Amino acid sequence: MRQACAGFEGHKRDDIKTAADREQTGSVSNEVSEIESRRRVASMTKLAEAERDAFLSKTRLGILNTVNADGFPIGVPVWFDWDGEVVRIFTVATSQKVKRIEADSRASLLVVNDLSELERWVSFDGNVTVVEQGGIELAEKLAGRYWDLRDPSKKETLAAWRKAADALRVLELRPERIRTYKD
Question: Per residue in 65-78, pLDDT tens?
């Protein structure tokens, strides 16, 4: 059974005791100072627009975060295209992504660095619109970017997408906010 104390709703009593123990040693204030210091540094290390666009021009997966029916966020890896104004993703009309977006259009796309690179990321936050036209064109463009189309299995998948072109949709995210970070 959980016991709640003022300001600590939802935490177990043991968690509160641990925080109190750390506070007595002064480590909580040191941890807070370190976190605040890192936040100040992070706010000073944003990508310039040209750096952002160069970062996004490389082949990277994005994590599309949408809101599930129970109100919790759900993230899925996606291919994406950024033209400087709109992020575009393709999917099938019957996908869970489309169902979630139709119920709540708020979303975020997070694109991160490869592990061999310095830490960088770009996050696009905004509302997504489901567009019925252009799905196969975007799928073909992104397949050429993300796959080696000399691979017979990739060619077969792309051919299947072409046959089902009417079932493809484009998700357009027009960012209301773009957040960036670089190490």
Answer: 999 999 999 999 99
